[in-house]
């Protein structure tokens, strides 16, 4: 009876130009490479924290 892991979809919706270097590194850490790029990640507290940090740059569902 393995339980399915929760997933969250994250999309980069705002350009990284003129953003904090640390925030750019966080976006790259989420696996986002370019504008409108979407990745599906496991819903963990670490990923939620990264999304929260750059919430003004990304859109997420899940």
Notable features of this structure?
Ribosomal Protein L30, Chain: A; 24% strand; single chain; 3-stranded antiparallel beta sheet; alpha+beta; 62 residues; 3 strands
Question: What is the CATH superfamily?
Answer: Ribosomal protein L30/L7
The sequence of SSEs as H and E is EHEHE
Count of DSSP helices? Answer: 2
Helical content stands at 25-40%
What does the largest sheet look like? 3 strands, antiparallel
Structural class: alpha+beta
N-end to C-end Cα span? 23 Å
For the record, the count of structural domains works out to 1
**How many β-strand runs?**
3
Radius of gyration: 12 Å
What are the low-pLDDT stretches, counting only 5+ consecutive residues below 50?
A: none
Categorize the overall geometry.
Answer: globular
CATH C-level category: Alpha Beta
Q: Mean pLDDT, as a whole number?
A: 95
């Amino acid at each position: 009876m393995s339980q399915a892991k929760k997933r969250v979809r994250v999309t980069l919706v705002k350009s990284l130009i003129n953003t904090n270097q640390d925030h750019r590194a966080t976006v790259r850490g989420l696996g986002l490479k370019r504008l409108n790029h979407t990745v599906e990640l496991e819903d963990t507290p670490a990923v939620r924290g990264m999304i929260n940090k750059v919430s003004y740059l990304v859109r997420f569902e899940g």
